[in-house]
Structures are given as structure tokens and as C-alpha cells.
């Protein structure tokens, strides 16, 4: 049976006198604007994911540097996701993508995929970047954390704090209706630009509902021409990568939503609701580089991380989380 390919179809239409018109798939935009059921499902999936990640980070912090490698760390995280979903009456259907488990210089490779040949130990004095996600029937997750293995140098801390400032700026943004991704991408890059740094990837991509972890048409980048509309889910993932040295990325998922009205304000505004609740490594933050508002955002975020996750943790993990989310 012959297959009618895209190009064959175009040829048939044009050869018979027709006009072949390229239009955007009409399903793409409605699919990107999640309904109430999808949004609530995503919140449930992220609750489960946050608990699993917290358990993983607590476990990782107790390991002796140099005894864990990238492959074993990724497998352990997947195991925590499986166990947590079972406890929550859910099921991890699959990973939403192959986990990026990158230690030290491997973290500088933006889309690194560990193999038995590249597998590296998590050694003291290095950063560990883990970008992972799960596919649940309730929703799709994608989260990145960069953590310290042992004591870390001041330069790595400075770079981490600059990335964090960008993530906070975007998380707390207010913007008018009609704003496109390319209009606010700069918010995540500004602190890095001031230091002469940047990152060679987009700041955010759309995420599906038990579908593709990379979903359009919305994105946060210099090419993001799609208007941001309430109900869209999008990632917030600035980073910094120093070749053959280290990589840093911090990623939360967010929902576009109407912003709280400001007294005497003239126009309706939009903002973001954070979906991801997982601690950000306080050991890597140079507090003196944060503004009062940035410190308050992080303290409020960590208070929420503890409130959301603590009821599901055992005594040991709860104690670890309490320390990990202490106010700056």
C-alpha cells in the first residue's frame, strides 16, 4: 500500500491546479491552554514529583562524595519517583525524557546524556546538575536542580546566584496581556548579562499534559513570538555553562495566570503560578548578591516547599528539608 507523504500530497494538489497553503495546526494553541482538570492534574503530578525529588536530594546529601556516579544517581531518583507515586495512589508511567545526570565538567554540556563511557563520580568540590521529569496520567513534569557536592568555590557560587536571580525575576514577573515570550526572556538573562555571561538555549518551553515535555507554541526565548495566555504551562530554566568546568541550571514549571489587580491600575495583567516545589541549594547562594525582594521571594518559596512536602516525609527527610528551607 502506497504511503501519501507530505511532499507527495503537495505535489498532487499543485499538479491538479490546486494551491497548497501552509497553516498552523489548529489543535496546537487550544492544546497549550490547559483546562481546569489538566491544571489540577499538573498540580497533583508536581506534588508527587516534589516529594520524590526532596527525598532524592536528602538521600544524596547523606552520601559520601565520590561513592555515587551519574548513572546510579539517576536510577535512584527514578526509584524515588516510583515509590512516591505508589504511596500517592498514582503511577509513574515513564520518565518524560532521559534524565540529565551531570557531575562536574559534564554539567557544561547542555544536553548531556550519561553513558557507561562518560559516567562520572560525584566528587567533592564539584557541582551536580540533574534535569529530570516524570510522565503521570495527571500531568508531565520537568525540573532541574544544581547542588553542591562537598565544599564549592566562590566563583561557582557567584555564577549560581546570578542564575538564581534570573529565575526569581521571571517567577515574580507581572506583564500585560499580549506579552510574548520574547518580550520577557531578558528578565532571566539580565543578571548574567551584567556579568558578561549568557546561556545558549531558550529560557522556557511549553509542557504538555501527559504529552510531550516540549510543547508549543509558547516559549521563552528571543524567538518566542506566541502571546502568553492564561492556562499555558511553561518552564523557567536559566543557566550558565563554563566549558570543561561546570554547568548550572535551575528549572521550575509555571502556569500563566491573571495577576492580582493593583489599586488604581489601568490594565489587566498576567503573572505566573509556580508548579514545582523542591528546595534550591542554599549552600550555593551568595546572599550579598541578592536584593531584599529576591531574598523574600526565596524565603517565601522555601516556606511553601516545606509546607507542601513535609507532611509526606519521614522523620529523617523532614529534618533535612527543614534545614534546606531555612530563611536566608
From TrEMBL:
One of its GO terms (cellular component) is cytoplasm. The keyword Manganese applies. GO terms for molecular function: metal ion binding; metalloaminopeptidase activity. It is an enzyme of class 3 (hydrolase). InterPro entries: Creatinase/aminopeptidase-like, Pept_M24, Pept_M24B, Peptidase_M24_C, X-Pro_aminopeptidase_P. Coiled coil: none annotated. Keywords: Aminopeptidase, Hydrolase, Manganese, Metal-binding, Protease. Its EC number is 3.4.11.9. This is Aminopeptidase P. It comes from Bartonella rochalimae ATCC BAA-1498.
